[in-house]
Amino acid sequence: MKLKNYIVPIIIFLAFVYRPPVNSFRLSYEVSLLYSCSLIFGMFLIYKKYTWPGWFLILASYASYLPVCSLLSMQSLRVIVCGVALYYAIVELNIKKENLFNGIAAVGLVHVLFLLLQYNNIDPYQIYGIKSNLALTGLTANPNEASALTALTLPCFFRRYWAYAIPLLVIGVLLSRSYGGILALAAILCVYCLYHGHKFTGLMTFGLILIGAYIFIDKPEFSARYTTWKAAILLYFNTEPFEIAPKIIIKKTFLTGFGLGHWKTISHNNFFDVVNDVYFHRAHNTFLHTWFEMGMGFLVILAFYAKRLYKQIKDNIIFILAVCAIFVTCNTNSTLRMNALNGLIIIVWIAIIECSWREQRIKI
Question: Is 60 exceeded by the pLDDT of residue 275?
């Protein structure tokens, strides 16, 4: 007997007869629909051999309901469902890899163009009929996001002809003046040199970029991140029930997180230490942020996916550089949470990697 023949009808039945604890009775219908869709979609992905995205979606469904169901958790779950659906669609459509590379590279060039225009006090957003504040943000909303987007598109330029535009991307990273992108740039160039056997050149490049940024741009400021991360880790292991908002009480265990979307609520209600009178509404670390909200299950899924990812990228330098950019930017910024378009680039990257790996296995 196959479980799917029983579980799916049960989920559909519960969607009609169970009412989630939300304020509006009509809203409970929408929440029940969202839960049933996300759970069935997660099962479908597992059935189709998309194991880690399926389990991630099921875990996200759980974390959006427990330890507490809220509007923020529902909004977060919707975004995750969209992201997983995008990943599945790209892999199944089996779009030509070079075309996707070209699309990502084009985004990087337009982003740098916007940065250069903003640097010269020209507002590129006037072509859309809107005004920006002329900050050096390119296609994004703040310097952290701008540097992350530049770094995430950079690996596509390590190809024939496209490589001539790498200096433009380097300029884009430096213009954003954010150390997340600068660190990613240094790591990408270092890894590229190490991959081709130039150990000394790679280490020298890494060191010179960071030293140059320290001297000519600004001193890096990581104390706020460190203080926030330390407070979040200590709070995670505190299993005593507490009220994060009026009449919203969280009762968590060691294995469960605080629920999707609740980092901002907890930060806003002063559960973290004050950092220069500012509370971090994002963790500025995607992995820590997701673990804090989804619990130990996320770390298990991440570990299994990391092992799979290593097999997929070890013989492809562009994929290695892409993962390097993703890893650095996700550890220095809330890349998947602060800017949906940066998250889209990451989803496209991991979909390309998965699609390429499946093609190779079919050929074998």
Answer: no
Cβ atoms of 21 and 69 within 8 Å: the answer is yes
pLDDT tens-digit profile of 30-83? Answer: 777 788 888 888 888 888 888 899 999 999 988 887 777 777 788 888 889 899
Q: What residue spans define the domains of the chain?
A: 4-93, 97-217+298-363, 223-294
Q: Which of 223, 213, 131, 125 is nearest to 175 (CA)?
A: 213
132-138: Cβ within 8 A, 24+ apart: 136/175, 136/176, 136/177, 137/176, 138/111, 138/112, 138/114, 138/172, 138/176
The dihedral region occupied by 259, where left means phi > 0, alpha psi between -120 and 50, and beta the remainder, is: left
Give pTM, 2 decimals: 0.86
What DSSP element (H or E) covers 223?
helix 223-236
CA angle 70, 71, 74 (to 5 degrees): 90
Alpha helices in 154-178 (DSSP H): 166-176
Indicate the SS3 state at residue 123: coil
Range in 47-56, 144-153, 217-226 with the lowest mean pLDDT: 217-226
